[in-house]
Amino acid sequence: MHTNRIDHIGIAVRDASEKLRLYKDFLGLEVTEIEELPERGLRVYFIKVGDTRIELLEPMNENSEVSGFLEKKGEGIHHIAFNVHGIDEAVKLAKENGLQPLSEEPKKGAGGTRVLFLHPKTTGGVLVELVEGEH
Description:
With 135 residues, the chain is of the alpha+beta class. Helix content is 19%, strand content 42%. Strands 2-3-4-1-5-8-7-6 form an 8-stranded mixed β-sheet.
């Protein structure tokens, strides 16, 4: 497994339409796609910034993957994602390096990608997402 770029920065928001005033209207950035991930309780807004993206994560219900984060910490940066090759090796390599994956296997991510998160208590307080595939 190796990485050569940041795939995206995930930002948890309660209402993406409010936040689009900053990213779209003020900064002039383009929303390239909106995707719903009902199995994860998320609506994801992709905003292109150069070679990377910002991902606005809006809960679709009170049990979404970001609901607990929003309750505890409020809106803000949720995770940083790195594009990787060989995500199937990630669980093994993470454990060998003292990092704790949040799941034993990669999950389905937005845009047909495969993703794996690393627990922030083992990554210096940052929720790290590994993303395999292109959007």
